[in-house]
Amino acid sequence: MSESAWQLLGDYLRETCLFGSIQSTLYWDQNTVMPSQGAAWRGEQLSLLAKHLHERKTSNQFQTLLQAAKEEFLVHVNSNKCDNDFLRDRSRNIELLEQDFYRQKKLDSSLVVQLAKAKAEGYNLWQQAKLTNDFNCFSPALKKLIGLRQEEANQLSEDRSCWETLAQPFEPDLSVKRLNQLFTPLREKLPELLKELVTLKTDEKSEWDLDIPSQEILCEQLLDNWKRNKNIIATARSPHPFSITLGPNDFRITTRIVKGQPLSSFLATAHEWGHSLYEQGLPSTAHQWFAWPLGQATSMGVHESQSLFWENKVARSFAFSKSFWTNFQKAGAPISSAVDLWKAMNPMIPGLNRVEADELSYGLHILIRTDLEIALLEQGLDVDDLPFEWNKKYKELLGLSPQNDTQGCLQDVHWSEGMFGYFPSYLLGHLISAQLTVSMEKDLGPIEDLIKTNQIVELIEWLRKNVHHYGRSLNAEELVKTVTGEELSPNYFIEYIIKKTQNLINI
């Protein structure tokens, strides 16, 4: 019996997915254990894979298979013998495959190879520049990446601006206009709240630290408390925390140890756990859609909403501190009560580093980056002027001035990998997380009560049922409206952060 067109397309997608997972595995290795001198060869490996993947995603064979599967699907539609779920899922997969195919087809293969090499070189030079506080070491690579990404946007020639075009893989259907609608209230309210908090809050962040083994043990205890399955999840350290999926049952999480920041690795682990948990809950987990669009995350904003839920709504909650503070005490931290740990988890003091930022000031870090990358791509901001503009915006929005570029414009990995259009996802994630949490509490009751009684499984199951399983069947804003019954709004996050800051002031 001959295979159907749909099966043949699925086989092709699976093989493409295997090549992509090899690429991801090399990326994981590059960030965790690869020696620095391996960067040049790794760049060639990744470039070769990028070229091969682009060829597969734009080949005539793939186009033929896709067209045949589409025609076969239309026969099913006309036969009226298939249920609505079957038709909806296949229709959406075809729609997304065609969308991705024609986007990839517009790109010149030589540009894809150049970008892969530039990303590998940029990442390596960024690491060196950050370590030595030498922006000039990295700036030529950044200029090259910006030029290549501008050319990519030009080749894609979508009815969008350069920045909007590059943002589409991270946030499908997002426009600068919509971004401004969501972010303007935050731009107005967050500095006002931060100023009020700094004025009223007199206690300073305590200075203490934990040795590396103690921090690693606490991270392991956290994951065990949150029902990690060690058979499918591996952990490691990297220069920048991240989560990545290498296969249907192969999930990786990294964290980093920061001297003088004893909670950094702990909160980063909580954050990346949320990312990984979302990946584990996608339809791809059971292999059904792993190689298909429906098995993928709908957007990075939704992805971030899941990581921020576990980092901020759970790990930074008072109920969690109440149940976990003795672990820190046993590890040698000067923590004598749940209140001590809760206050340490929620300093609400503006700082220079995005990753270490509290929930209130975090959004301002993202607004700064969003403004700057749009300026770099569309408004002619010279890369050589980036440190100055970065420092200027930090003074304006956070009242702080970086002492050097390592603290400033070199702190993030994203631009070194050409990831322009990604940063807004972090703040969109805050908005989505706050709005989804309100719906969760309507169904399950207060989050604090669930955490207090260690009902972690109940939290996971709600997210699986209401958020994770959609994959790319809905875009981010459609998902939010489906789950909450309302359009995405910044108001839920603003209400949440006002309440939390007042609690911290009054304690």
Q: How would you summarize this macromolecular structure in one to three sentences?
A:
It is globular and about 65 Å long. The protein has 507 residues and is mostly helical. Helix content is 65%, strand content 3%.
Largest sheet: 3 strands, mixed
Structural class estimated from helices and strands: mainly alpha
CATH architecture of the largest domain, please?
A: Orthogonal Bundle
Tally of domains: 2
Order of helices and strands: HHHHHHHHHEEEHHHHHHHHHHH
Write down the CATH class of the largest domain.
Mainly Alpha
The strand line-up of the biggest sheet is 1-3-2
The outline comes out as: globular
Summed over residues and divided by their number, the pLDDT gives a mean of 92
Number of E-state strands: 3
Distance between the termini: 71 Å
- Portion of residues in beta strands equals under 5%
Counting H and I runs of at least 4 residues, what is the number of helices? Answer: 20
- Report the helical percentage: 55-70%
Query: What is the rounded Rg?
Result: 23 Å
At the fold tier of CATH, the topology name of the largest domain is Neurolysin, domain 3
Outline the low-pLDDT stretches: none
